[in-house]
Amino acid sequence: MINLPKKDRLLYKTITVALAGNPNSGKTTIFNNLTGSHQRVGNFPGVTVESKEGFLRHGSYRIKVVDLPGTYSLSAYSLEEIVARNFIIHQRPDVVVNIVDGGNLERNLYLSVQLKELNVPLVIALNMADEMKKKGIHVDCAAFSRFMGAAVAPTVATRGKGTDKLIEAIIQVTEGNFARQDAPRVDYGPEIENELEKLSGLIEDQKLIKPDVPGPISSRWLALKLLEKDAAVTEKLQGQTANPAFQEQLQLSLKHLMDIFNEEPDTLIAEQRYGHVHGMYRGMVSQGLPSRVNISDQIDKVLTNRLLGLPIFAVLMYLTFWLVFTLGERPMQWIEIGQGWLSQRVMLLWPADSGTLLRSLIVDGVIAGVGGVIVFLPNIVLLFLALSLLEDTGYMARAAFIMDRLMKWVGLHGKSFIPMLLGFGCSVPAIMATRVLDNRRDRLTTMLVLPLISCGARFPIYMLIIPAFFPQSQRAPVMYAIYIIGVVLAVICAKLLRSTLFRGELAPFIMELPPYRLPTTRAVLIHMGQRSWLYLRKAGTIILAVSIIMWAVTTFPRLPAQKTAGLTAPQVRQVRLNNSLAGRLGRGLEPALKLMGFDWKIGTALIGTFAAKEVFVAQMGIVYSLGEGQVTAPAKYKESVNSAAKQIHSPGLSATGHLRDRLRENYSPLVGFCIMLFCLIASPCVATLAAIRRESGSWRWAALQSLGLTLIGFVLTVAVYQIGHLLQIGTKTV
Amino acid sequence: MKDEISLCDLAPGEQAKIIRVLGNGLFKQRLLEMGLVKGQLVRKVKLAPLADPAEFVIKDYHVSLRREEAQEVLVARLP
Known about the structure:
heterodimer, A: about 725 residues, alpha/beta, 7-stranded mixed beta sheet, 34 helices, B: about 80 residues, alpha+beta, 6-stranded antiparallel beta sheet, about 15% helix
């Protein structure tokens, strides 16, 4: 809720306006035009459907605008539809603004008619007036207004045109200055009307509508919903009345209609409603000649061409990946440099070797934690830039169209491809990208399997291990193998989830392919800003908290100073880590670790991967007491590729080289492979889990993923190690 | 009916009129809401590069349907 100073609340009259409309109707753009940057993103109470509200002032009014989810209908078949409908019925907004895409008028009117049936004060924003002109469509607004019993305001939302008129219309309707004539209601034909009358009579007799309680608007509407077998309404009414006559009548009506039409009543009603829409359409639209060829169709001929479609798609996906990860790399480096500089500064506040707890907390806990949060920000900002562009231009639907065949095989939607691809860069933005999926089951499945795609942070681990254990000729194949294992596991897990946890009626893949449009800078910027802020607020706080916990785990309990006397700095770090909770945990877990061929040292380093996967490299350096600061995880993807490439050419020279020697001395290639396998599969890092928590709306999924993947990782690694051990594969160092 | 085919059987560029939508529940309701109702004209535009799904034009807008969905929509081919 946006709170105004008290004096404003006294001075202004507050009204609530709800925006309803089809997806792609320009609803969000109108919302942006109305409210500017005064917006709040949240969730509708109790569900994960996102709600946006904003406000504006006009004259003596303070108008609260609520952006309802985009829907094609108000039947109760999807969560979005239920949320939109319930908001209108139970919150009773003062005005509902229905945004209608003029370029696709007839289908949009299906929702409009349903809104009219709810009998709420209605304003229609006839959007994309420019596209109508191009198509040669002329709409008689006076007739439209008469048919709908609503004020009609033409708008071109992308150019901000018509917003003032729209606000005026809202005010007129609120003040009752708009003469709401009796618009013709949908005539469902004598047979259905007859049954409607019987049912609404019974509803009235039993006083199921209480005028003082916000709720269903008319007995006719309730009766209609009953005939449509609307689960939500039927359930509720049955809870309110135990009258057998009512139940009996309902069953009789349904059977009667079924018998004479040999068709489900809900189908009949939808057909009649579309019939009404068609009549209205013909009564108000005159079709002239289109002023020019449809550019959108021409573009589509190329972009989804049977031959060119796939290569163009590949190029665009490459560009997306490049934009998000390569372009984001520089700012990430700046953030890391800034973080390093700040740490140095803070260190100087204490005497050089004092090693106080507070210093450690601030430098290794807080600054490192905050850095760990902000370091993702460039990726996130650029991700939402890319997603906005793909979505607003209309290409996203085409990407799904092109990839659907492949993704269907996995049991997912074509739109899942983009998050999966981004997963190779980093799981955090990839999980945020699952927003493009409308179906919750698809979304959760994609999110849960995403961490199996090898992200950039796994790369330094692979780059440490592979050159340590495998001869030059085998390095590339092993690297490919580990990436492919991840993808294959993701596919298997997605299929498994689809046939167990997320089984159920397959949502039909009916996807609108909206016309190509030029995105507006304003919409893209607002979208980017909102998402990035949400990331910082929601996921960021969790990441920070857990980073500090991880710091504590590797710091406490502390060793008394006399125990570290006379040791070199690296040795001090080593004994400290060994003594810490992480070290103790590593040792405590040794029996389980042994099954995978790991010792407690690997175990201790693995605990660090919970903070971030690449921490494994640094932690291994510490447990083998290599010099401080010499073995560090190369911070990011490309940097690590470069440094790793250098080290392959000069093995044994650098600190990482020394670490590789130690690894070779202590473990077999089989163990090396098992480390990579376990790091690939086992629990994703805190940042990923925080993103899952945020995007799924519940810790349950994050916990399920963390534990589930760790279990799968453990079982598979044990299997690989034990079988390898038995068959003597890779047990001797090459 | 003798000329009853499904949307699947339509070749790209061909037009047809919807006779009836099969299936039930959410699936059927979705198709209806999107305007796939009896008597509606539909034109198949093209197939996706991997041969599925297919793109159709109805009521002035473009929609993508998978093979399984298109099979449930019975139509009569128009010349």
